């Protein structure tokens, strides 16, 4: 009897412990410092659920995959032997071997290889660029606030279906790792695509030069300020000022092409002038020949008196030649 009572009490205690494990836990009250830091989380563009501590929050579409994966777990049918098995796969990413054991998950790298390569590349670009280095510091502060916004208490309040502390830690690490990796890789692409490192270096040089001129207390109409201050310059002209070096190269190319065309036109003009001179010489010779021909024709032409005398002479000759009978 005592053995059966002990067995029954042990089974009741095991059942009570299992129900306590499966029951959703109420979030612990947050310290005032954490609540003050969490107030900055909505500025980050993250879902308000990650920064809110209210238990009545309705899950958003961003946490739909987490909710679906958590609700699909057969928690009621888990046995003591299944407690050491791998956690169920979710719709975020395929879990690694380190995620099956919370102790091993603490040793996994916080970022993937692509994000770490992007971080190293950004650090190399900002090595001699103080403005870009300041931008990287601001980005690191932003990513630090991401850690604050994804603390276990906030995730537990936003997604109460994930009652297990192990699940919350695993999903929080995944979310932070993927979000930070995405932000870092996209940041490098934006910096390279829009040449922000070059712009930042130019801005730093311009500010240094402006500080020097301010220290010299130059007047706006002074000669030293003419290259930096012109009242008639518009914003469009300032925007197009970066194209001046490229336009100068193009202008030099066009000037060389124009010079070649001018030389070719000069040669063509000289050839045409020689052809015109040759034509005028031939035309003058033809005119002289025509004048000579006119004089010759005029010299051999017969007028009316000469024609009358010639006819009389021919008549006399015919009279003398004709035989007389």
Automatic annotation (TrEMBL):
One of its GO terms (biological process) is cell division. Residues 237-278 form a coiled coil. Residues 81-103 have a biased composition (Polar residues). Residues 1-39, 68-111 are annotated as: Disordered. Pfam families: Nnf1. The keyword ATP-binding does not apply. Keywords: Cell cycle, Cell division, Centromere, Chromosome, Coiled coil, Kinetochore, Mitosis, Nucleus. Its main location: nucleus. It is found in: Chromosome, Centromere, Kinetochore; Nucleus. Residues 7-25, 68-80 have a biased composition (Low complexity). GO terms for cellular component: MIS12/MIND type complex; nucleus. The keyword Nucleus applies. This is Uncharacterized protein. It comes from Tilletia horrida.
């Amino acid at each position: 009897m005592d053995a059966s009572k002990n067995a029954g009490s042990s089974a009741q205690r095991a059942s009570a412990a299992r129900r306590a494990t499966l029951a959703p836990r109420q979030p612990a009250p947050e310290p005032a410092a954490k609540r003050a830091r969490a107030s900055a989380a909505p500025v980050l563009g993250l879902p308000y659920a990650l920064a809110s501590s209210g238990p009545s929050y309705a899950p958003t579409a961003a946490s739909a995959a987490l909710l679906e994966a958590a609700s699909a777990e057969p928690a009621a049918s888990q046995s003591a032997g299944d407690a050491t098995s791998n956690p169920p796969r979710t719709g975020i990413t395929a879990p690694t071997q380190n995620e099956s054991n919370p102790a091993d998950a603490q040793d996994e790298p916080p970022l993937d290889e692509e994000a770490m390569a992007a971080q190293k590349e950004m650090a190399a670009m900002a090595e001699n660029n103080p403005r870009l280095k300041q931008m990287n510091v601001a980005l690191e502060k932003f990513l630090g606030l991401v850690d604050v916004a994804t603390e276990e208490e906030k995730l537990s309040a936003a997604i109460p279906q994930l009652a297990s502390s192990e699940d919350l830690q695993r999903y929080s690490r995944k979310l932070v790792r993927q979000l930070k990796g995405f932000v870092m890789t996209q940041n490098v692409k934006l910096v390279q695509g829009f040449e922000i490192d070059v712009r930042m270096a130019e801005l730093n040089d311009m500010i240094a030069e402006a500080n020097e001129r301010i220290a010299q207390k130059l007047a706006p109409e002074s000669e030293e300020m003419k290259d930096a201050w012109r009242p008639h310059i518009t914003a469009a002209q300032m925007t197009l000022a970066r194209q001046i070096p490229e336009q100068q190269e193009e202008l030099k190319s066009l000037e060389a092409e124009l010079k070649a065309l001018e030389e070719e036109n000069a040669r063509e003009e000289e050839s045409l002038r020689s052809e015109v001179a040759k034509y005028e010489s031939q035309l003058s010779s033809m005119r002289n020949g025509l004048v000579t021909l006119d004089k010759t024709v005029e010299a051999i032409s017969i007028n009316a008196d000469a024609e009358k005398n010639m006819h009389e002479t021919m008549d006399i000759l015919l009279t003398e030649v004709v035989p007389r009978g």
